[in-house]
Amino acid sequence: MDKIIECIPNFSEGRDKEKLEKILDEIRKQEGVKLLDYSMDKDHNRSVVTFVGDPESVIQAAFNSCKKATELIDLRNHKGEHPRMGATDVIPLVPIKNVTMQECIEYSQKLAKRIGEELNIPVFLYEKSATSPQREDLSNIRKGEFEGMFEKLKQQEWKPDFGPQIPHETAGVTAVGARMPLIAFNVNLGTNDIEIAKKIAKAVRGKSGGFKYCKALGFELKERNIVQVSMNMVDYTKTPLYRVFQVIENEANRYGVNVIGSEIVGLVPMNALADVAEYFLKVENFSYDQILENRIYGD
User: Fold this and answer.
1) Which end of the chain, C or N, has fewer beta carbons within 10 A?
2) 120-138: buried (b, 16+ CB within 10 Å) or exposed (e) per residue?
């Protein structure tokens, strides 16, 4: 049986298409993998890339793209809305077919070791691969960002899992880990008041009393003169998109602000969108077997 894993590296470059293309070429030329999607965000100054393939090929493509990003991206000159600590900020691995989570953890360890030893970049294992509870949440690791890592890594509790105990001069620090499928879901508000976005993000964020499987921050989209509630939905089966969307809409109404749109960054499981359709259309007795693609391609 063919084993398939998904890799979704985040690179700290969202404005220079030529640089990103050189990074993507390292993935495209790797046999055994398929580049599925990528998106650039100028305000966040960040790109999210998605590819799949057999585990060994995916690990090689991830390493090669990280190496190229290290050559091209200098975080000393990097500014953007999204928090970041590395040129290759994070590399998640997701089991897709005939692969267990434990196997994905082992693949993440193999990749992290190579990045640390061969590229001289400190690497933290996170999510399911984490070596301590405080490292499970990526935001804990990333706190302080690139500029704060030089002091942070001097603390014994923040000694990297692999690589040196000092950030790479230009490429910073990278996180690698195995995790469940994640949906990057953003909701745009019809205002440029960042405080409103931050208050709404706090209302839905799990760590501040909101939804357990939602991570959220408020950002400015300066090119559009609006603000955004930017979220990572870490388990859509337990915290569905429609539930969070409705709360954001209700909270925005409190401030006299409209939701003017939403976006999904990267790829999304079909059933996550089916949940939304079922809820808002009030479909009775709906079954996922009624989705045409599920019947055609389902195992």
Assistant:
1) C
2) ebbbbbbbbbbeeeebbbb
Q: Where in the chain do CATH 3.30.70.670 domains reside?
A: 183-297
Q: Specify whether 82 is catalytic.
A: yes
Listed in order, the ranges of the chain carrying CATH 3.30.990.10 are 4-178
Q: Say how far apart CA 16 and CA 10 lie, in whole Å.
A: 15
Which residue in the list 44, 78, 82, 168 is annotated as catalytic? 82
**Cα–Cα distance for residue pair 200/195, rounded to 1 Å:** 9
Sheet of 183-189: strand order equals 214-221, 226-233, 183-189, 259-265
Q: How far apart are CA 284 and CA 24, in angstroms?
A: 44
pLDDT tens sequence across 165-181: 999 999 999 999 999 88
CA 163 to chain centre: 22
Burial class (CB in 10 A: 0-12, 13-18, 19+), 74: middle
pLDDT score of 1 more than 80: no
**CA nearest neighbour of 42 among 2, 76, 80, 71:** 80
Q: Are 239 and 231 in contact (CB under 8 A)?
A: no
| CATH class of the domain comprising 4-178 | alpha beta
CATH topology of domain 183-297: Alpha-Beta Plaits (3.30.70)
